Structures are given as C-alpha cells and as structure tokens.
Amino acid sequence: xxxxxxxxxxxxxxxxxxxxxxxxxxxxxxxxxxxxxxxxxxxxxxxxxxxxxxxxxxxxxxxxxxxxxxxxxxxxxxxxxxxxxxxxxxxxxxxxxxxxxxxxxxxxxxxxxxxxxxxxxxxxxxxxxxxxxxxxxxxxxxxxxxxxxxxxxxxxxxxxxxxxxxxxxxxxxxxxxxxxxxxxxxxxxxxxxxxxxxxxxxxxxxxxxxxxxxxxxxxxxxxxxxxxxxxxxxxxxxxxxxxxxxxxxxxxxxxxxxxxxxxxxx
Length: 266
Known about the structure:
elongated, D-Maltodextrin-Binding Protein, domain 2, single chain, 5-stranded mixed beta sheet, 2 domains, about 20% strand
C-alpha cells in the first residue's frame, strides 16, 4: 500500500510540475492574451533622431524606437501598430486619457514621471551630455557653461540641468523640440545644447560636427522605458515579456546594430 501511495504521490507531483511549467515558462502567452486586440496605438514625439524622427522624403516615422515598438507589437500578436506623432507635452495626457496604449519617445525613467504613469523595464541606457558651438573654445566642463547661452528641450531632464546653470548666471533658452534647439545652435543663437548623448552623437555624425563639438563628460546615466497608463497594468506585463523575448531571439540586437552600430554597450 505504501508503494502505491508513493507512486500516486509521484504522479501528482509530476503533474503539478508540468502544470507549473505550462503556466510560468518562457513560452507562456497569458500576458499577451490579456491585452491583445486588433491594433496597438502608440504615441511619440518624432523629433529625437535616431530614436524617432520623420523622414523628410517620405513623411514616414523612422528610428530605433519606431522599429522596436513595431517589433514589440508583432511579438505580442497585434495585427496593426499605429504610431502617432504629437507634442512632447501631450504624451502623458494621451496615455492617461487612453488615447494611446503606449508611448515610446526616448523617455527617461524618472521618479516624477513614475508618479503619473507606469514604465516598462529599461530598454536603452543613455545619459545627458552637451555640445558647444564651434568657436566657443573656453568650455571644457559643465561649470564653464554658466556664462553661456544654453538651449534645452522644455520639460526634459536636460531642462533640469539647464535650470541649474541659469541659477549660476547662464542664459537659458527652452524649445519645444530638440531639433529646434539644435537649429538655434547652428544659427549661432546659442552657445550650447544639453541633450541625450546618443542624440547629440547622431547630430554630429550627420553634419553637425561642422557646427559643434562634444565637450566635457556625460552628466548623467539614464534608462529609457516605454510608458503605459496606470489604468493598464496588464500592458506593462505584456510589453516587458515582449522586450525579454526580443532580446532572447536576437531581434533587439539586430535593431540596435542597425541604428547605433555594433560593439556599443546596450
């Protein structure tokens, strides 16, 4: 009898192990099923190359973030992924009003933003840096900017650093987009721009080096996340699982190499 009891106990434990494996393994799609519908609606601000920008020839939205969110949508199982371009200030209101399911826009995960929305796990490690206009040769550190005209995009982490300089005497100029700030530097109307390092590197690589140079050391280390309404926790779970899957199957690395080149920290 004891042998029979032991045998049946073994069967029960084995069945439980199989059930647990089916419910919690890496192939579990329950997180996807909880949010799946016909279309994933995404909002962004397409003025942050190489993460998101508008192709001047075709009018299409391009960039690392655009490719990544489309890959996320495909992994979850959405048949359609629609990305809408809007002002940076409108991203959080659009998410909270459920006008969009997610937002991806080179968004740094900050404690202030986390009070208003959920973020996915980090998908890109970035950091703030600054460039100075050619001919501005007396800037070697962040502190040297306190006597300069400094441009930033409003309501960003770069703007917070700009405000610190303003308190020390710098002339701070805020713009709706990073593109506008960079254009002002090219026109000679400002001496420096504070922004995310990969964006500044891209600007220099596509012709900006004729007008400016990187100066000093990076100011911060920041993580980008995909933004979701706090009313939609299931979407965060699905996006996190999709990001894990894309990293495991090599899709993330392919997109990273496409936009940033190989051999860089991810």
